[in-house]
Amino acid sequence: MACIFCKIIAKEIPAEILFENDSAIAILDVNPIHYGHALVIPKNHHKDFLEVPENELPGMMHAVHVVARAIVKSFDLRGFNFFSNNGTVAGQSVFHFHIHITPRYPDDNIRFVLQLKRYEGEEMKDVAAKIRASIQE
Ligand code: 5GP
Ligand code: ZN
What we know:
Elements: H1 4-9, E1 17-20, E2 24-28, E3 38-42, H2 57-75, E4 79-83, E5 99-104, H3 123-134
Antiparallel strand pairs: 1-2, 2-3, 3-5, 4-5
Bound molecules: guanosine-5'-monophosphate and zinc ion.
Protein backbone atom coordinates (compact mmCIF):
# COMPACT_ATOMS: atom_id res chain seq x y z
CA MET A 1 0.00 0.00 0.00
CA ALA A 2 1.91 3.02 -1.27
CA CYS A 3 -0.78 5.65 -0.72
CA ILE A 4 0.17 8.12 2.00
CA PHE A 5 -3.46 8.89 2.89
CA CYS A 6 -4.32 5.17 3.15
CA LYS A 7 -1.42 4.85 5.58
CA ILE A 8 -2.74 7.77 7.64
CA ILE A 9 -6.24 6.22 7.66
CA ALA A 10 -4.77 2.87 8.75
CA LYS A 11 -2.89 4.78 11.52
CA GLU A 12 0.41 3.45 10.14
CA ILE A 13 1.80 6.97 9.99
CA PRO A 14 0.85 9.84 12.27
CA ALA A 15 -1.41 12.76 11.46
CA GLU A 16 -3.29 15.37 13.44
CA ILE A 17 -6.78 13.90 13.15
CA LEU A 18 -9.54 16.49 13.59
CA PHE A 19 -12.68 14.46 12.94
CA GLU A 20 -13.84 11.06 11.71
CA ASN A 21 -17.12 9.53 10.63
CA ASP A 22 -17.98 6.29 8.78
CA SER A 23 -16.96 7.69 5.37
CA ALA A 24 -14.26 10.25 6.00
CA ILE A 25 -11.38 11.43 8.11
CA ALA A 26 -10.24 15.03 8.51
CA ILE A 27 -6.59 15.89 9.24
CA LEU A 28 -4.38 18.96 9.31
CA ASP A 29 -2.44 19.49 6.08
CA VAL A 30 1.27 19.16 6.87
CA ASN A 31 2.11 22.12 4.56
CA PRO A 32 -0.71 24.55 5.26
CA ILE A 33 -1.73 27.56 3.19
CA HIS A 34 -2.66 29.00 6.59
CA TYR A 35 -2.53 27.34 10.01
CA GLY A 36 -5.66 25.21 10.37
CA HIS A 37 -5.70 24.18 6.66
CA ALA A 38 -7.43 20.78 6.77
CA LEU A 39 -8.00 17.86 4.42
CA VAL A 40 -11.17 15.78 4.36
CA ILE A 41 -10.34 12.35 2.96
CA PRO A 42 -12.64 9.41 2.18
CA LYS A 43 -11.66 6.34 4.22
CA ASN A 44 -11.77 4.19 1.08
CA HIS A 45 -9.15 4.76 -1.60
CA HIS A 46 -10.53 6.60 -4.67
CA LYS A 47 -8.13 8.47 -6.90
CA ASP A 48 -10.38 11.45 -7.60
CA PHE A 49 -13.84 12.90 -7.12
CA LEU A 50 -15.35 11.00 -10.05
CA GLU A 51 -14.35 7.68 -8.48
CA VAL A 52 -16.05 8.36 -5.14
CA PRO A 53 -19.27 6.34 -4.93
CA GLU A 54 -22.40 8.41 -4.31
CA ASN A 55 -23.10 6.74 -0.96
CA GLU A 56 -19.83 8.11 0.46
CA LEU A 57 -20.54 11.71 -0.54
CA PRO A 58 -22.95 12.64 2.28
CA GLY A 59 -20.39 11.53 4.90
CA MET A 60 -17.67 13.49 3.11
CA MET A 61 -19.76 16.66 2.99
CA HIS A 62 -20.83 16.20 6.60
CA ALA A 63 -17.14 16.12 7.59
CA VAL A 64 -16.44 19.24 5.48
CA HIS A 65 -19.33 21.03 7.21
CA VAL A 66 -18.25 20.04 10.74
CA VAL A 67 -14.59 20.89 10.18
CA ALA A 68 -15.22 24.17 8.31
CA ARG A 69 -17.50 25.32 11.13
CA ALA A 70 -14.84 24.41 13.71
CA ILE A 71 -12.04 26.18 11.80
CA VAL A 72 -14.13 29.35 11.46
CA LYS A 73 -14.87 29.24 15.20
CA SER A 74 -11.28 28.47 16.22
CA PHE A 75 -9.71 31.33 14.28
CA ASP A 76 -12.67 33.72 14.32
CA LEU A 77 -12.62 33.75 10.52
CA ARG A 78 -14.57 36.00 8.17
CA GLY A 79 -14.13 33.52 5.32
CA PHE A 80 -12.63 30.26 4.13
CA ASN A 81 -12.24 28.24 0.93
CA PHE A 82 -12.89 24.62 0.28
CA PHE A 83 -11.67 23.09 -2.94
CA SER A 84 -10.31 19.96 -4.53
CA ASN A 85 -7.64 19.40 -7.15
CA ASN A 86 -8.53 16.57 -9.55
CA GLY A 87 -5.85 15.40 -11.98
CA THR A 88 -2.24 16.46 -12.44
CA VAL A 89 -3.28 19.30 -14.75
CA ALA A 90 -5.44 20.67 -11.91
CA GLY A 91 -2.62 20.48 -9.36
CA GLN A 92 -3.43 17.18 -7.64
CA SER A 93 -0.33 15.68 -6.03
CA VAL A 94 -1.83 12.95 -3.81
CA PHE A 95 -4.00 10.60 -5.85
CA HIS A 96 -6.40 9.70 -3.07
CA PHE A 97 -9.33 12.11 -3.30
CA HIS A 98 -9.45 14.89 -0.72
CA ILE A 99 -11.12 18.24 -0.10
CA HIS A 100 -8.99 21.11 1.21
CA ILE A 101 -10.48 23.56 3.71
CA THR A 102 -8.36 26.62 4.38
CA PRO A 103 -8.82 29.78 6.40
CA ARG A 104 -8.77 33.09 4.52
CA TYR A 105 -7.70 36.48 5.80
CA PRO A 106 -8.04 39.99 4.43
CA ASP A 107 -5.11 40.87 2.14
CA ASP A 108 -3.60 37.38 2.28
CA ASN A 109 -2.93 37.71 -1.44
CA ILE A 110 -4.03 34.19 -2.31
CA ARG A 111 -5.76 34.11 -5.67
CA PHE A 112 -6.08 32.17 -8.87
CA VAL A 113 -4.52 34.26 -11.62
CA LEU A 114 -7.42 34.28 -14.06
CA GLN A 115 -7.74 35.47 -17.62
CA LEU A 116 -11.50 35.35 -18.00
CA LYS A 117 -13.00 34.50 -21.36
CA ARG A 118 -16.16 35.67 -23.06
CA TYR A 119 -18.66 33.51 -24.93
CA GLU A 120 -19.34 34.82 -28.43
CA GLY A 121 -22.58 34.40 -30.39
CA GLU A 122 -24.15 30.98 -29.76
CA GLU A 123 -21.12 29.54 -27.97
CA MET A 124 -22.67 29.63 -24.48
CA LYS A 125 -25.79 27.79 -25.69
CA ASP A 126 -23.61 25.24 -27.54
CA VAL A 127 -21.40 24.58 -24.52
CA ALA A 128 -24.43 24.11 -22.26
CA ALA A 129 -26.05 21.76 -24.81
CA LYS A 130 -22.86 19.68 -25.01
CA ILE A 131 -22.67 19.27 -21.23
CA ARG A 132 -26.41 18.54 -20.91
CA ALA A 133 -26.03 15.82 -23.56
CA SER A 134 -23.23 14.24 -21.50
CA ILE A 135 -25.28 14.07 -18.33
CA GLN A 136 -26.58 10.53 -17.92
CA GLU A 137 -30.03 10.21 -16.41
P1 5GP B 1 -3.15 18.04 -3.59
O1 5GP B 1 -1.87 18.68 -4.09
O2 5GP B 1 -3.22 16.58 -4.04
O3 5GP B 1 -4.39 18.80 -3.87
O4 5GP B 1 -3.03 18.04 -2.02
C1 5GP B 1 -2.26 17.15 -1.28
C2 5GP B 1 -2.02 17.76 0.07
O5 5GP B 1 -1.61 16.74 0.95
C3 5GP B 1 -0.93 18.83 0.08
O6 5GP B 1 -1.49 20.07 0.51
C4 5GP B 1 0.10 18.28 1.05
O7 5GP B 1 0.66 19.28 1.88
C5 5GP B 1 -0.67 17.27 1.85
N1 5GP B 1 0.12 16.16 2.32
C6 5GP B 1 0.96 15.39 1.56
N2 5GP B 1 1.54 14.43 2.32
C7 5GP B 1 1.03 14.58 3.57
C8 5GP B 1 1.23 13.88 4.80
O8 5GP B 1 2.01 12.92 4.89
N3 5GP B 1 0.53 14.32 5.88
C9 5GP B 1 -0.34 15.37 5.82
N4 5GP B 1 -0.97 15.72 6.94
N5 5GP B 1 -0.55 16.05 4.68
C10 5GP B 1 0.12 15.67 3.57
ZN1 ZN C 1 -5.25 5.86 -0.61
